[in-house]
Fold this sequence. Notes:
The complex is a heterodimer.
Chain A: H1 9-18, H2 23-41, E1 44-47, H3 49-64, E2 76-80, H4 108-115, E3 119-124, H5 158-166, E4 171-176, H6 182-188, E5 191-194, E6 214-219, H7 222-232, E7 262-265, H8 278-293, E8 297-300, H9 306-332, H10 338-349, H11 352-375, E9 378-382, H12 405-410, E10 414-419, E11 428-433, H13 439-452
Parallel strand pairs in A: 2-3, 2-4, 7-8, 7-9
Antiparallel strand pairs in A: 1-3, 4-6, 5-6, 5-10, 9-11, 10-11
Chain B: H1 3-15, H2 22-43
Helix pairs in contact in B: 1-2
Amino acid sequence: xxxxxxxxxxxxxxxxxxxxxxxxxxxxxxxxxxxxxxxxxxxxxxxxxxxxxxxxxxxxxxxxxxxxxxxxxxxxxxxxxxxxxxxxxxxxxxxxxxxxxxxxxxxxxxxxxxxxxxxxxxxxxxxxxxxxxxxxxxxxxxxxxxxxxxxxxxxxxxxxxxxxxxxxxxxxxxxxxxxxxxxxxxxxxxxxxxxxxxxxxxxxxxxxxxxxxxxxxxxxxxxxxxxxxxxxxxxxxxxxxxxxxxxxxxxxxxxxxxxxxxxxxxxxxxxxxxxxxxxxxxxxxxxxxxxxxxxxxxxxxxxxxxxxxxxxxxxxxxxxxxxxxxxxxxxxxxxxxxxxxxxxxxxxxxxxxxxxxxxxxxxxxxxxxxxxxxxxxxxxxxxxxxxxxxxxxxxxxxxxxxxxxxxxxxxxxxxxxxxxxxxxxxxxxxxxxxxxxxxxxxxxxxxxxxxxxxxxxxxxxxxxxxxxxxxxxxxxxxx
Amino acid sequence: xxxxxxxxxxxxxxxxxxxxxxxxxxxxxxxxxxxxxxxxxxxxxxxxxxxxxxxxxxxx
Lengths: 479, 60
């Protein structure tokens, strides 16, 4: 079975507006794909088929009565199971997480999407508490890559990536502390956007690293990500770190011409690195040619303290994660998978001095980056150093946040768009980042790239279930 | 890591109330050894405290 035609939100909206499709038909199409593929791809933890059908009927009725809520009217959306919703429980894919979290209902981002007419289809798989390695040893679905189910779909917004790639939903929400939206976007062949820090409120989101966490969209196109971001953005009284600056990307800014836009390329980060696959380098060279042909001025740059700010981000985030979760962790230790508790224990062992130094490195790097941003509008890099890892051997996972995590520490907008896949047809991502608050410029660069390429249109062939046991790969046994 | 270092890791985790078992301690100790190298690199950066004592303002 091939996945549903990869229609974008914009295209679905046009079909609804023209009366070519109903909301009910769109929802049924998503449910049909989920029926065919969810079980063996491990996309959803919880599905809300009945509630989605009921909401689709209501939204069809509104359209029949001449009322459209806008571009998201009747569009299905899948929600990472780290975000609370009105519809059901929030598990964080962990037996150790209190179910009380889900009882708080929609946070601001989900509520704003729902008010705009979106239909919540279900809660998607993640890494345990956004930290643990995928395992078949717990009662949650094991997320698999839709392009090759023997492989990892990326994380931690794993199911959100595969939901969009397969057509189980044309849009999904993820969270991103070190790359958790952009990594699955890259490995699953979809578009993913981490907005500027604080632009989209985090209320209702289980905290990982509070000063590093971002909520953002995964979708077929950059244009869709812009629509979703614009709808979710804005200050929220329930999120003390949400921004009061209104720099949401206006629709009119998306089509900004790339001519004269300066794109900086830190080749030193990937051309000489043994950890970066040749296929990624080749795809990057082609992607830069596309941007240059569209009129961008591509220049080589050096990014100061890149490795350091990435290391500081991962350290600061795990300290904050542990601090947020210490009481629950002690109480639920043996119900939490070993890889998640090993990661969180690093936060328990780290000192106040280490945490403070991580913050200083972050602030220093932010300051040093000003001169870089004075010379370029956008910085382009690979999103991930290679395509999807085999689930049987996840030993290379530590390298995956290398290109993404620094942008979490600095809080700047960063987008992943599909570029040419590797020789096996596995997706690879191009990352575009910009200065803080310049979300529209980043999105317009991605939109321009997708006007000249079609990799974001590709859909995976959905094959039969994979009989594949990864439980021996790691001991994450519960006691 | 020496056996004493590993014992120290186990003791500190248990002092935090974390009921670690032997395999936890072994895996955490290995990860912590790698993290200590990272932390040492970060500590060696000569950053003036007065100028950079906090995270970027927008991060709270």
